[in-house]
Write a structure and sequence with these properties.
Low-confidence stretches: 1-13, 29-62, 178-190, 348-385
CATH topology of the largest domain: Muramoyl-pentapeptide Carboxypeptidase, domain 2
Radius of gyration: 35 Å
Structural class: alpha+beta
Number of helices: 10
CATH class of the largest domain: Alpha Beta
Mean pLDDT: 79
Number of domains: 2
CATH architecture of the largest domain: 2-Layer Sandwich
Number of strands: 15
Order of helices and strands: HEEEEHEEHEHHEHEHEHHEEEEEH
Strand content: 15-25%
Strand order of the largest sheet: 5-7-8-10-9
Oligomer: single chain
Helix content: 25-40%
């Protein structure tokens, strides 16, 4: 019986070569994708995760690279439009901010062991920023002049107390009388008293001076140092001479207000009032030009205005993507003032100049304060607006 032959037909050699090339190509493409993925991840480039398109010619994935955003947003409560040291309070803008976080100027002064000035009573309250700036300034004033006769007679004032003062001024105007302090005719006095609810004393950022013993403080003579240097401490002369038509409060050389650096430097150097400064800042927006400032120590800032989102409880305030140090403060009108710290002074603060004068003997004002161990003194009735 004849044996059946096995089928000895061979596959064409070309098929094996094609399969081998397919496998090699698959391995090469896979290796290339893994390598590209490694390079992308290692380089920190953000890749769009949407669908990608493969080219028939190259086999390379056509990917979209996202760019870093040019800004970030910070949520600010619209209620904070009425808070902070830049709030503008005048006859057209009532104070609607918080009246908490007040401190006794006298107690802070005693804790700092400052004897460079006196405070009319223990209950005279101010915001902490004002207390710190004011004490530092008056300590430096004493180091420069050895004069400790300044007395702070007014700080935070309630709406009810302001109403009493306003009524008193109105009565003087109706009777065409002069006040005991001899401040002038009734019409002038009314310009010194803000309406209840419209006095910046209610903010806790304003104070009034007189000289120890009741003498008026006029900012002249040795006291001119304060107007020349107050901006270095974030303070301004709130109602300067020649600005009554804008502030609607006549010149008050004794009334100082805390607004902070670098705003105080710009206001005092350019001899403008707070109303003019707040209005000026509206010309500087996030999208447009920023106001570039340097403070008294040489630190650099960018400042711009951003309106509050009307009808909402919060506003998303835009900031540059790289903003690290900034403040967002309300203007008490309609929006926020953003202050970016963009450069520190080189070499640190300058050393204060030393005076050749010798310290004066302890004055009656300081002796009285020490003898009474801080007992409350009678608050003067010469409180101003």
């Amino acid at each position: 019986m004849a044996k059946k032959k096995k089928n000895s037909k061979k596959e064409p050699q070309g098929n094996y070569l094609a399969q081998a090339l397919d496998v090699a190509l698959t391995v090469a493409v896979a290796a290339g994708l893994v390598y590209c993925g490694y390079r992308v991840i290692g380089g920190g480039v953000k890749i769009d995760q949407g669908p990608s398109t493969i080219s028939d010619n190259t086999g390379v994935t056509d990917e979209t690279v996202e760019t870093e955003p040019s800004f970030q947003s910070v949520e600010a409560a619209n209620a904070d439009v009425h808070n902070g040291p830049l709030v503008l309070v005048n006859n057209y803008n009532a104070f609607e901010g918080t009246e908490s976080d007040l401190v006794s100027l006298y107690e802070v002064k005693m804790n700092r062991e400052s004897h460079s000035f006196t405070v009319s009573n223990r209950e005279l309250m101010v915001k902490p920023e004002m207390a710190d700036a004011l004490i530092t300034m008056l300590d430096d004033f004493y180091e420069e002049t050895y004069d400790d006769n300044i007395e702070v007679i007014s700080g935070y004032r309630t709406k009810e107390k302001q109403q009493e003062l306003y009524d008193e001024y109105e009565t003087a105007e109706e009777n065409d009388e002069e006040f005991e302090e001899g401040e002038g005719e009734g019409e002038e006095k009314q310009q010194r008293a803000a309406k209840a609810g419209y006095s910046e004393h209610q903010t806790g950022y304003g104070v009034d001076f007189q000289l120890y013993g009741g003498e008026d403080y006029d900012g002249t003579g040795v006291y001119s140092w304060i107007d020349e240097h107050c901006a270095e401490y974030g303070l301004i002369l709130r109602y300067p001479d020649g600005k009554t038509d804008i502030t609607e409060i006549m010149f008050e050389p004794w009334h100082y207000r805390y607004v902070g650096e670098p705003h105080a430097t710009y206001i005092m150097q350019n001899k403008i009032c707070l109303e003019e400064y707040i209005d000026l800042l509206k010309g500087y927006t996030f999208e447009g030009e920023h106001l570039l400032l340097k403070d008294s120590k040489g630190n650099s800032y960018e400042i711009y205005y951003y309106p509050a989102d009307a009808g909402q409880s919060n506003t998303l305030v835009p900031l540059p993507a790289d903003a690290a140090e900034y403040t967002i403060l309300g203007n008490n009108v309609d929006g926020f003032i953003v202050t970016l710290s963009v450069g520190a002074a080189v070499g640190g603060d300058a050393e204060p100049a030393e005076s050749d004068a010798e310290p004066a003997e302890e004055t009656e004002a300081e002796e009285s304060e020490e003898e009474t161990s801080g007992e409350e003194e009678e608050a003067t009735e010469a409180e101003e607006a």
